[in-house]
Design brief:
heterodimer, A: alpha/beta, Aspartate Aminotransferase, domain 1, Aspartate Aminotransferase, domain 2, 7-stranded mixed β-sheet, B: alpha+beta, two-stranded antiparallel ribbon, 44% helix
Chain lengths: 409, 79
């Protein structure tokens, strides 16, 4: 076996961790030129809400990493749960009817705590994957499978909202209607369409009320469905509160109006709870805070406080029943991942969810959210801040070149 | 749990996107010991761990405000 020889610029890269990182590690969501000039920021330790880098500098992790580390960076209970499961059974799969106890307990717990579903149905089944992107890709395939099972395989176009973020795998990135996730990749794929973002601050006309703006968003959605043909539109994917697109809190009455349009044309609603799920907005689910009533739900991140990769798709009985029947006809539900219901990931997620309950984390979020909101609103004293918003423990400040300029109503 | 969005009573005037004002602010805030994230459209997100305490929220935002006090000169130049 010959040793792979790196290109010469890597050979002379030096042996510090930073130089080796630049030489060998292709970073996600990173400008290579900036990485090359500034070098990586190497994190070494975590402690509660803090992370400590290799130089010993301590930082508040004001983003929970990537909106995910809900229980902080040093929760011993999660480490213990992982170690116990590692020792017992470090891997098994869930194909062909196999499973492990932590996955059974976790699925049961997720269904017990599920938000109200749409169409007078209830959430009844959980499918496990390893990331939010995988969960959304899975949900999209389930929409296709569902409509094929109902004898309308052409009802498979997917709608997401501009500024929506749903992940970066091929289908998920097509739904992520942000230029940075699509430019250079030839995305979105042609069956994904984008509708108006519920961005009141930037999207509403001067003087337009929240309710009127919500009605306009719903009318835009209806127009898109009619233009595409209702018989070709399978689902809308939507975050209850948009995260990476700018922490966009929908205007009052938004989801009830969106829901009405979707019901009218028999289009499924998939709530992307990857950021909102598990207490972030002051309820277990963003779907409860925003009264979304989804037919399906995807979640990840805080499911395990991000200590290990695990995600889930929840299906209402309305969606699950035809899928199960079709799978029986075909002899198998032909979808699944090696890491679906991974025992160690499931054990950590189960313990994280138990800790959420034992420590009343949702109650803590509700108690502390007014202070969080007040501290965000205090930033209004800066002339370059145009908008401030928060709900639960998620918020944003938006810059404006001159918040006192522009046309007054 | 109810929420309110501030009324829009003026047209929004944004910074030139080329300035990447949010990314600059995030870098300034990080020097004060807080990691945040710039989002598209000149937005900075806040999403701390759910276990954050009242004392930690105050200290975190004191640091953010101190950074933004310094950042005012940059914003004034770019605006």
């Amino acid at each position: 076996m010959t040793q792979n020889t790196p290109p010469s610029d890597q050979v002379i890269a030096g042996n510090s961790p930073a130089s080796r990182d630049i030489a060998f590690h292709m970073h996600p969501y990173t400008n290579p030129a900036v990485l090359g000039d500034a070098g990586p920021h190497i994190m070494a330790e975590g402690n509660g809400v803090f992370v400590i880098d290799e130089t010993g500098s301590r930082f508040y992790e004001g983003m929970s990493g990537l909106w995910c580390t809900s229980l902080g960076f040093s929760e011993p209970e999660l480490i213990d749960a992982a170690m116990a499961q590692f020792k017992k059974l470090p891997f098994y799969h869930s194909f062909a009817g196999k499973t492990v106890n932590p996955a059974i307990d976790l699925a049961e717990m997720l269904i017990a705590n599920a938000p109200p579903a749409g169409g007078d149905s209830v959430m009844s089944k959980v499918f496990f994957a390893a990331s939010g992107s995988e969960a959304n890709d899975t949900a999209m395939k389930m929409v296709w499978y569902y409509n094929a099972a109902l004898g309308r395989p052409e009802k498979r176009k997917i709608i997401s909202r501009k500024k929506g973020y749903h992940g970066v795998t091929m289908a998920a990135a097509s739904m992520t209607a942000l230029a940075y996730a699509q430019d250079g990749f030839g995305l979105p794929l042609d069956f994904v369409k984008h509708t108006t973002a519920p961005d009141f601050y930037n999207g509403a006309a001067v003087g337009e009320s929240e309710e009127d703006f919500a009605s306009r968003c719903a009318a835009d959605l209806e127009e898109l469905i009619l233009n595409e043909g209702p018989d070709t539109v399978g689902a809308l994917f939507a975050e209850p509160v948009m995260g990476a697109g700018g922490v966009i809190i929908p205007p009052r009455t938004y989801f009830e109006k969106i829901r009405a349009v979707l019901t009218k044309y028999d289009v499924l609603l998939v709530a992307d709870e990857v950021i909102c799920g598990f207490g972030r907005t002051g309820n277990m689910w963003g779907s409860q805070t925003m009264d979304v009533r989804p037919d399906m739900l995807t979640c990840a991140k805080a499911l395990s406080s991000a200590y290990l990769p695990i995600s889930a798709v929840m299906l209402s009985e309305k969606v699950y029943a035809p899928i199960a029947k079709q799978a029986e006809t075909l002899g198998i539900f032909g979808h699944g991942y090696t890491y679906s219901a991974h025992p160690v990931c499931a054990a950590v997620a189960l313990r994280a969810q138990q800790l959420m309950q034992e420590r009343d984390i949702v109650g803590h979020v509700r108690r502390i959210a007014p202070q969080f909101k007040a501290r965000i609103e205090r930033l209004a004293r800066f002339d370059f801040i145009g908008n401030l918003r928060s709900i639960g423990l998620i918020g944003a400040m938006e810059f404006a070149a001159d918040k006192h300029s522009g046309k007054k109503i | 749990m109810r929420w309110n969005l501030p009324p829009i009573n003026i047209a929004v005037k944004k910074f030139d996107p080329a300035h990447k004002i949010a990314a600059q602010a995030v870098a300034a805030i990080q020097k004060h010991g807080v990691i945040l994230r710039a989002l598209p459209g000149d937005i900075v997100g806040f999403c701390p761990p759910l276990i954050i305490s009242d004392v930690e929220i105050d200290d975190m935002f004191d640091r953010i405000e101190a950074a933004l006090d310094e950042f005012g000169a940059v914003a004034a130049r770019l605006g």
